[in-house]
Amino acid sequence: MTAMQDAVTQIAATVDAITGVTAAAYPPEGTNRPLTALVYPQTGGMAIASDGNRHSLWDINIDLLRTRNNMADDMRTLVGVLDPIKNALAAEVSTGGDQFSNTLETFLALRVEFIPDYVYQNVQYICYRFTMVSVKFIE
């Protein structure tokens, strides 16, 4: 596996460890569980310094999906796991964290966005998208 693939797999494992969430790196077909997190690289590239030093910097998305049935109930379920996910991701790169099993060094910021109308595999979801900004992989 590449450094990116390893990191995405470890990020998914961290999110999957949160009670009630099923996470998948590189989402498989047929994912349709009550609360699913899809983890995948979004945008990125390589930063190259004048001394030739290089760093791969990518944004990694975690789409937390809830099948849309009743907006109020669905929102309560999603909002209930926002802080545990944010805290778990931050803990991995904080003092005492293992940097997602030593696959990434750090990330610049964590953005969270609400997406009320998310369709995946012809199923209607509501979504909170976590974006780990400028993830620096250990290569």
Task: Explain this structure.
By secondary structure, the chain is of the alpha+beta class. It has a single domain, classed as 2-Layer Sandwich (STM4215-like), CATH 3.30.2000.30. The chain is 29% helix and 45% strand. It is built from 3 helices and 6 strands, in the order H-E-E-E-H-H-E-E-E. Strands 1, 2, 3, 4, 5 and 6 form a 6-stranded mixed sheet that branches. It is elongated, with a radius of gyration of 15 Å.
Mean pLDDT, all residues: 87
Helix-strand topology string: HEEEHHEEE
Radius of gyration: 15 Å
Corresponding CATH architecture: 2-Layer Sandwich
* Annotated CATH topology: STM4215-like
Measured between the Cα atoms of the first and last residue, the distance is 11 Å
Number of helices: 3
Beta-strand portion reads 35-45%
- Per the principal axes of the C-alpha atoms, what is the gross shape? elongated
What is the strand tally?
6
Structural class: alpha+beta
List unreliable stretches of 5+ residues: none
The percent of residues in helical segments reads 25-40%
How would a crystallographer describe the biggest sheet? 6 strands, mixed
Query: What's the domain count?
Result: 1
Name the CATH class: Alpha Beta
